[in-house]
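Appendix B, record 7
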Amino acid sequence: MMGLGRSLGRGLARPRFQGIRFRLGVAMAFALLPVIALSIVQMQTGFRKQAEDRAQSLQLAASRASLSAKARLDSTVVLLDALTPETLGPYCGPRLTALVQRLDGYIALYRMSATGEIVCSSRAPLTTTTSAAVRARAWFQRVRAGEHSVIARAASTRPADAPAVIVAVRAERPMGRFDGVMTASIPLESLQPDVADPALPDGAQAALTDAQGNILVSTDPAAFALKDGRLGGWIAQVRAESVGADLFQARTASGERRVFSAAALTGRDVYVVLSAPSPGLWSWAVLNPISNLLLPLGAWLTAFAAVMLVSERVVVRWLHYLERIAAIYAKGRFTIRPVQAVHAPTEIRVLAGTLDDLAETITTRDKALLDALTEKDALMREIHHRVKNNLQIISSLLSMQQRTLRDAPAKAAIGDTRQRIAALALIYRTLYQSADLRYADAQVFLSDLVGQLVASEALRGPLVTSSVQADSLIIDPDKLAPLALWLVEAVSNAQKHAFAGRGGRLQVRFTVQGETSVLEVEDDGPGTSDDQAQGVGRTLMGAFAKQLRGEAELVPAPDGGTIARMVFATPEAVAPADPADVIRAEAGT
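Structure tokens (predicted):
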């Protein structure tokens, strides 16, 4: 066996070029060379260049698209600044009305006081527009707080009017005190960015938004309906960073991935946003399908097939073979050897040789362990047998001494001691007769002990019948001893007080109830007496119960008689799972 392990490892003297890593490295290097070259030279360079050009075009287009709308808003601010001093005379309304009629792209002009009252307008204001409502609007509060100009969406217009924005300019007195607001209402259509720019990508859409990202007007609302609603947050970031234009990518509600670019208008309250489909690898690859798609794909498939073939032939099949050998070893069968591994690569041969040496070592060790266990088992059985014999000798000596006594209490005391010694002797007999010396079944032991106790008194008085109902519980002898001694005291009390001179029926019940167990001894005698409740046996029963972390009590039986009951913590059940037990069991089979 050891020679086979050495022969499997002889491949170590061969060149290193036969190893697994070298073979896989050479195969992968040759197979992946076309993929690496084409990916670096064509795919990465070409795709990144196109993406950068597309992003730059979108940024420039956003800036250009904002110029016309920005100029319109800037001219409106200049107009309002010029009109502010002229709106305090008696003919303010007719002049503003005539001005709106001459100028294109204006819905109305208003002059408001510092309290929000409309003091002059190009048309009659709505009856619902009160000074309190005007003061509550955010744009009015911002102008009153000190901003020179504010742009916001019109909160309320007539049903016939188109959607519009309000341009508000602060009016001040000579000392800089707030003196009201001059506003102009501009239709959103006049600010709509143009998407006819030839530099824009195919499918580009344009929109106007406020500072919170709310769409004011757009060429296609679906292009700006984002799946995660991030447009407002992005606009806020652009506003906070004070940049002219910025880019980000997101998915629309329909799942389309698009690129967005924004440019701020006057006052940074209105933004021009352009949206275009996000460029993908496929959109770039279709420009030259042979060099950009087919060759890299063919090279990758070649590399993948080569790696899979080499891995299967050189590594995977040998690993599966060693896995089957290891599974056989896990079942305890070490006679099988990995002889086929002599044709495997160097590393696999070394591993197979190690498994072979391991199997040989385990076989030798198992034989030594089985011999030691057999010897130990024989010695332990001999010890238990001798202890049982010595206890029986002690019991016989006490029996001889008992027969010489004339004092009845002394004879009874020695008889009780003999029963206790006999119970301990039964424990050792149960152990050396069981399949495992370390454990005993409480069901079998209690049945034998009750039978022994009843039989020992069978020839000395009236007939006593017994029955045992016990659950099976495998426990160690340390817990079995106090259990047996408590049962001896309970049965002895019943024999002395319940069955003396009359016989009767004895019932023993042992029940395992989860974390607690109950041992009961019931007789059909006359009931509990004072001597029975306060004697030495009752004291010993309490002491044995405490050893088992339990309590003992004497209670009347439902049909007459007495029940001696002990409720204690269930001893931990033992399931022999030691590897030594498994080895011994397999050796026995």
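Remarks on this record: The radius of gyration is 51 Å. The mean pLDDT is 75.
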